[in-house]
Amino acid sequence: MGVGEPENTRGIITTTVDALFNWARKSSLWPMTFGLACCAIEMMATGASRFDLDRFGCGIFRPSPRQSDLIIVSGTVTLKMAEAIQKLYDQMPDPKWVVAMGACASVGGPFDTYATLQGVDKIVPVDVYIPGCPPRPEALLYGLMRLQDKIDQMSISRKQEEFIAGNG
Predict the structure, then answer these.
(1) What CATH number is given to the structural domain containing 57?
(2) Domain assignment of residue 132, yes or no
(3) Which of 79, 164, 70, 73 is nearest to 118 (CA)?
(4) For site-directed labelling of 161, which of 2, 39, 69, 93 has its Cα 20 to 30 A away?
């Protein structure tokens, strides 16, 4: 107990419901990977002990969309694969977030062909874009920290769609 501190406030934490929910959400992201090309190698390196994703609360990649609230799309997305990404995204529980990792997932990369989707944001809403070809593990960590900052600004009283659209 410090000088001038009331005795009855010891052990009491005051916060808002939004702050509590946002802290829990940003501190326990459950990522599902969707590695399609060379960016997936860097994503695997990020999950190894050198970069330690567990520091950020998202250390274990989940195999099922029903257990995930974050999908990391890395690599070239073809039109045939776009349907699978859309199905996986639809199966994820709300709230859910998407990270586009690398130039191919963000804008199609060097592949400007009829069979390549020019950015995963054409089929699912993307929250964070990570540039690079392929981006280093540090870039993925930085992108995840930016996603945590974005989650910290959410409110449970607003719908996630309004927040993504920037109306809130």
Answers:
(1) 3.40.50.12280
(2) yes
(3) 79
(4) 39
**Calpha distance 162→130 (Å, rounded):** 23
The whole-angstrom distance between residue 153's C-alpha and the CA centroid of its chain comes to: 14
Residue the block writes with tokens 């699912």: 124
Half-sphere exposure of 41 (CA within 13 A, CB side): 4
Can you list the alpha helix ranges (DSSP code H) found in the chain? 17-27, 39-46, 79-91, 103-107, 137-152, 160-165
What dihedral do alpha carbons 157, 147, 39, 35 form, nearest 10°? Answer: -30
- The number of distinct structural domains making up the chain is 1
Q: What range does the domain containing 75 cover?
A: 28-153
Upper half-sphere CA count for residue 120 (Cβ side, 13 Å)? 34
State pTM to two decimals. 0.79
User: pLDDT (tens digit, 0 to 9) for every residue of the chain, 168 residues total?
Assistant: 455 555 655 666 666 777 777 777 777 788 888 878 887 888 888 777 777 778 777 778 888 888 888 898 988 888 899 899 999 999 998 888 999 998 888 888 888 888 888 889 999 999 999 998 888 988 888 998 898 888 888 777 655 555 555 554
